[in-house]
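Let's practice the habit of predicting before peeking. Look at the sequence and jot down your guess about where helices and strands might fall. Then scroll down.
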Amino acid sequence: MNILVTGGSGFIGGNFVQYMVDKYPEYNIYNLDLLTYAGDLTKHKEYENKPNYHFIKADIADRYKILSIFNERKFDYVVHFAAESHVDRSISDPEVFIRTNVLGTQVLLDAAKEVGVKKFVHISTDEVYGELDFDPDTFFTEETPLQPNSPYSASKASSDLLVRAYHETYDLPINITRCSNNYGPYHFPEKLIPLTISRVLNDEKVPVYGDGKNVRDWLHVYDHCTAIDLVMHQAKSGETYNIGGHNEKTNLEVVQTIISALDKSENLIEFVKDRLGHDKRYAIDPTKLEELGWKPMYNFETGIDQTIKWYLENKDWWEAIINEEYKKYFDDQYQIN
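Done guessing? Here is the structure:
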């Protein structure tokens, strides 16, 4: 069994690669990644010599290269994570998001159709649904209309529709999954949780957009991996599944939790100008997936404790990422004095 994981050197894709290599030694797991700023191979160092792990460096939007790889390897399954994913970067440079997330997905779909894969699993986001109000009884379901509000979420919604169209038009076997905010090991430190942990550990100011009351539903990356595994193996072709953790927290609550766990002062919090088009609230109803047999292992309290511990024990990994280019991006984005 040959399984292609695109974006397998990023955060969620990287965790999924490790999960699959460990769980299915009889499968050949191919990690295809361009190794942009948020992708690195150091997370897979202990996997490099495993016989069922293989790395391919390629750009998913490079049609000739992708078609050549697919025809050579004859993949049985494709699990497609590869994407530009940081909302802030999409606001300042939408074009790269369209190229990777839309054109790249279309190239992969063509390749999957040409070789006749058994299933194409497309990893999307709850952000394609837009935003919810603060009513705690409202949730995104698989029937919620797509109403993306950022260039990032618009590019993901576009790729979702392409995947659906290839199923309807060409009968390509597909599933689409839409997850809530992930957290856990190897999360690039531009995102809220690793950003907060790294800056609090260095006694640096932590930026919080607006008043910090925007709500997100948090999902541990390991639970996300188990959900995708289940969808890949057992879900009916053509179906979409929402993957959520039932762990809604305001951004401010997340930051305060981390500060408290590290025994630091909330004086480190600095409220900054709100993000353009900042969605108020995301919350997922994962009932459809739960009926398939999935159940998360982590609640937010256990998951965030484990995540903080991981960052404490793996400083070498994230400290190496915080280079001059990263610092310049941070300073330009948040303008903290």
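How did you do? The longest strand covers residues 119-125.
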